[in-house]
């Protein structure tokens, strides 16, 4: 399982992405917290950062030959598979024939995911602790790591 999230400062366009790979649900949250990876991205936006973070993580695991379940709160990422045909038909351009800002990232996403057996799962972010299941508790680790890195 792969959990990804990011936080960006819209004034500076600097963001931090975080991901966590979980192989075993029996690990404690404290031990998983130590495994969260964080990276700084510049010239980013919230949409771009979510994609940059996912691509960074996928590049780390692309050679693993097993199914990957990707957990994200990014609606953009969740919708990419459904948008693929139209994006490719329009050469990653808008209706006004202007190339999309993140087209290279979209192309990289499709190239990488073509190599993987994966499933995208939408996680509702920022829930009350009492409503969190195990997936949401693990997702909170990457959410907090990216926000903490941004504050520091």
What topology does this entry show?
Blueprint: E1 2-9, E2 14-21, H1 29-33, E3 37-41, H2 46-61, E4 68-72, H3 75-89, H4 103-113, E5 118-122, H5 134-151
Parallel strand pairs: 1-4, 4-5
Antiparallel strand pairs: 1-2, 2-3
Helix pairs in contact: 2-4
Descriptive report:
- This protein has helices at 29-33, 46-61, 75-89, 103-113, 134-151; strands at 2-9, 14-21, 37-41, 68-72, 118-122.
- It has 152 residues and is of the alpha/beta class.
- The protein has one domain (2-151): Nucleotidyltransferase, domain 5 (2-Layer Sandwich), CATH 3.30.420.10.
- The protein has a five-stranded mixed β-sheet with strand order 3-2-1-4-5.
- Strand 1 (2-9) and strand 2 (14-21) form a beta hairpin.
- The longest helix is centred in the last third of the chain and has 18 residues, at 134-151.
- The relative contact order is 0.23.
- The mean pLDDT is 91.
Number of alpha- plus pi-helical segments: 5
Largest sheet: 5 strands, mixed
Strand order of the largest sheet: 3-2-1-4-5
CATH superfamily, called what?
Ribonuclease H-like superfamily/Ribonuclease H
Supply the CATH architecture: 2-Layer Sandwich
User: Could you say which structural class the secondary elements and strand pairing correspond to?
Assistant: alpha/beta
CATH third-tier fold name: Nucleotidyltransferase, domain 5
> Low-confidence runs (pLDDT<50, min 5 residues)?
none
A few lines on this structure:
The chain has 152 residues and is α/β, with parallel strands linked by helices.
What key phrases describe this protein's structure?
152 residues, alpha/beta, Nucleotidyltransferase, domain 5, 5 helices, 5 strands, 43% helix, globular
């Amino acid at each position: 399982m792969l959990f990804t999230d990011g936080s960006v400062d819209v004034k500076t366009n600097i963001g931090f992405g975080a991901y966590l790979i979980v192989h075993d649900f029996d690990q404690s949250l404290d031990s998983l917290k130590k495994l969260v990876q964080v990276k700084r991205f510049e010239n980013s936006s919230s949409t771009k950062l979510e994609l940059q973070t996912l691509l960074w993580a996928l590049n780390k695991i692309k050679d693993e030959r097993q199914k990957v379940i990707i957990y994200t709160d990014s609606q953009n990422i969740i919708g990419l598979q459904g948008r693929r045909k139209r994006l490719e038909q329009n050469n990653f351009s808008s209706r006004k024939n202007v190339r999309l800002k993140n087209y290279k990232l979209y192309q990289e996403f499709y190239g990488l995911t073509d190599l993987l057996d994966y499933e995208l799962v939408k996680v509702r972010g920022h829930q009350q602790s009492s409503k969190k299941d195990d997936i949401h508790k693990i997702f909170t680790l990457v959410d907090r790591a990216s926000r903490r890195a941004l504050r520091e």
